Amino acid sequence: MGNCLYPVQPSISMDKNISPFPLEDFLNYSYDENNSYQSLEDYSTLDSAVPCRSCTLLDESSLPFFILASALGVLASVAVLFALLRPLFHWQLCPGRPILAQLAVGSALFSIAVPILAPGLNSVHSTVLCYLGSWIWYSSAFAQALVIGSYACLGPKLGASQIPALTLGLTVGLWGVAGLLGLPITLASDIFCSLVSRRGLGILQSVHAVICFAIFTLLPLCLLGVKVLKKALGRGPGPWLNILWIWFIFWWPHGVVLGFDALVRSRVLLLPTCLAQQILDLMLHLAEAMAIVHCVAAPLLLALYCHQATRTSLPSVSLPARGSHLNALGSKC
């Protein structure tokens, strides 16, 4: 995956300060101390003018990775969604099941959008499809992050009893906010469906970088900080910590690296060497790859969470059932 075998040779054009020396001019050239070898010094600066070339990990050669991740993500998301809507293996006992189903929906939407922006396939799509794919890509990810955050805060309430009004209001609110948060990068995208178009110096790109840093990086840190602070002060349990928080591991690097890249492009931070720029580009591609892998990992995390939740709920449900059965037998006797 990626291509570093064919670096682009810089094309150097000679300007008026860097002119070729014909033979007759060289023979007739006499030293003048006011000349100060300016042309020779200009030649020594040619190396610094060579553009910094980075390895591209997510290019046309990574198309199988995109297709495989998309296919596995769709299959896993649909399977988990089916198990949640038509409960199997006692998954109807999973607390907050309608809220958790939205994670499977978000993962499925993201998986569908992956081939639209995949290198090698993005050039065959229309402009409208490119905008739609970019909007679904990030809106579904924002929705999943907000769902996990809200479920961490409202999990105990959702487990006690299902409140249809709360579930509906939370669903509309979360997806509405996620859709609005995905608009800046959608409006900033050019006519090409490329991952590179998400980086830039425009206002919309900067707003998008701030949104990603806030949702993918600050949100889990804030939840964890509130959890630790409430536990230290003894003021309640705080946010509900569960296995779904692993989801943020796949997007946390994306928020950090994208925010750092925005600072570099706006010249707030300056990279000292070309190697530092190459490392930053590599980290951007690795973070993008981890974000893509989440569409396969999210349904698996959701299935594992529901399995653990229902396994702990089954004994509490079976004991009253056994008690009522014994009472019925006793009354018959």
What does this structure look like?
This protein is mostly helical. It contains ten helices and no strands. 66% of the residues lie in helices and 0% in strands.
**First-residue to last-residue Cα separation:** 73 Å
Amount of helix:
55-70%
Tell how many strands the DSSP assignment holds: 0
**Biggest β-sheet: count, sense, barrel?**
none
Poorly predicted segments = 4-49, 317-333
Q: What class do helices, strands and sheet pairing give?
A: mainly alpha
User: What is the H/E string?
Assistant: HHHHHHHHHH
Averaged pLDDT: 76
- Beta-strand content: under 5%
Radius of gyration over C-alpha positions, nearest whole angstrom: 28 Å
- Please count the helical segments: 10
Shape: globular
SSE blueprint and pairings:
Blueprint: H1 23-27, H2 38-44, H3 63-85, H4 97-113, H5 127-160, H6 164-181, H7 183-188, H8 203-233, H9 247-265, H10 274-332
Features:
mainly alpha; 333 residues; disordered C terminus; globular; single chain
Q: What's the short version?
A:
Helices cover 66% and strands 0% of the residues.
